[in-house]
Amino acid sequence: CNYGNTDLVFQVHLKPHFNYSPATDNLIPCKEAGLAFSKGDVLHIVNREDPNWWQAVNIVGGATGLIPSQFLEEKRKAFVRREWNGSGVLCGTLTGKKKKKKMMYLMSKNAEFDRHELQIYEEVAKMPPFQRKTLVLIGAQGVGRRSLKNRLIIINPLLYGTTVPFTSRPAREEERDGQSYCFVSRSQMEADIKARRYLEHGEYDGNLYGTKMNSIHEVVDAGRTCILDVNPQALKQLKTAEFMPFVVFVAAPELDTLRAMHKAVVDAGLTTKLLTETDLKKTVDESARIRRVYSHYFDLTIVNDNLDKAFEQLQAAVEQLCSEPQWVPISWVY
Question: Global pTM?
Answer without folding.
Answer: 0.82
